[in-house]
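Incident review: delayed structure delivery

Summary: a single-chain prediction request sat in the queue longer than the usual turnaround. Root cause was a stuck worker, restarted by the on-call engineer. No data loss occurred. The affected request and its eventual output are reproduced below so the record is complete for anyone auditing the incident later.

Affected input:
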Amino acid sequence: MGALIAFEMARAMRRRHATNLAHLFVSARIAPHLVSAGSPMSQLPDIELIARLRELNGTPEMVLQHQELLNLFLPIIRADMELNETYLYYLEAPLSVPLTVFGGTSDPRVSQSNLEMWKDHASSSFSLKMFSGDHFFINTAKQQVLASLSAILMNILM
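Output delivered after worker restart:
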């Protein structure tokens, strides 16, 4: 969901003529104009939702095994999922800032071709960087992701 928030923030900044955005980074989400082929998760019964969260491999097992933590986090997770699942894309001109998209090579929900479609939203430079791992590749390829971010940010600062 962070990718959508960042994307829509960049568009809102453009509409308000804020020109200080130097680069947009998004990760692990299909391009905003695409409709997700996956089944909605926000309305699943708790047991099924927990099983799907386990499959996605992004929620710590400690959370999934403790009812008190589930009581705290499931409503937040559901709200995030519902917002993501009900997002409506509205056509606007592509962004004029460089756009970098990150993805996991083994992500069961977001394919490389889905990530490549983000290029439709960039009139400036576009790059796609794939990392070993699933939807939460940031957990398994942390050093590579940070190195890639650092290199891009260093270029911006130079």
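Verification: The chain has two domains: 2-33+89-157, 46-85.
Action items: add queue-age alerting; document worker restart procedure.
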